[in-house]
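User: Fold this; tokens only.

Assistant: Input:
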Amino acid sequence: MKTVNQNQVLNEKIEVLRMKQSKDFEVLKSQFHITLESMKPINLVKETIDDFKNSKEIKSSLLESTLGIAAGYVTRKMIVGKSSSMIKKTAATIIQYLVSNFITKKAGKINPEEKEE
């Protein structure tokens, strides 16, 4: 009789494990579909845009860079004007680079939203 009883206990344990396996498989399938959906290109773009909208650091960095580039460009146009002199163009390029970097660095220090390093 012991053998039958042990077989019965073993069969019950096997059935419990099969049920657990089935449940785990359903959870895995569900997670797979969620992951697959989140990896679609349109969803990746949406998430990136949402992150950009919510990130003050990115906005502030973009603003600083834009200000620096614009200031450098205006400075270059003021120096070169309509001149075709190679020396003026070279000097203007160097000054544009320096002004752009200067403005970008100063904008970072002025902006109160940016974290201190």
